Request: fold
Amino acid sequence: MPDSLRAAIRDVVDFPTPGIVFKDITPILADGKLFSKSISLLCETAGGARIDKVVGIDARGFIFASAVADRLGVGLVPVRKKGKLPWKTRQCAYALEYGEAIMELHEDAVKPGESILLVDDLLATGGTAAAAVKLLDELGANLIGISFLIELSILGGRSKIAPHPISSIIIY
Ligand code: AMP
Reply:
């Protein structure tokens, strides 16, 4: 079944900027069986561990994280780009291809010791996930795992978020 997920992912060349091959996951979302399977496989990455909350990363990560949280019967916490969260936040700056961006997490979103599964659609250079991990570490989260639907392994993102356990369903 990961093969049928892989086959559904559409490569869009030079989007959003020249030189980037964008992995378009909307064909998976649009197919009920494939979307459901992607959520099952992401849930399995928890390895049966008790999860208190699922944390999703802005913005495609929310789609997968919210379905995983619902399937696991737990709550969802968003990590968002700067300026979107209304309450008191913690911030972490991270590098983009050009310049810098800031991720935010509500200060009270995770309690110390809570078991967290962090979910995003895609691991590229790892900067985004590393920022989310830093915020969760600062709040004292017990990070059970970090799960991606897609990993672009050539970009070496894993090394940025080690030593936390990382799972990817489809690896390029
Ligand atoms: P990075 O911080 O480099 O690991 O980038 C990860 C974030 O950027 C993820 O939230 C992805 O949604 C997005 N992203 C990066 N590269 C791609 C790509 N080639 N195709 C689709 N999304 C990407």
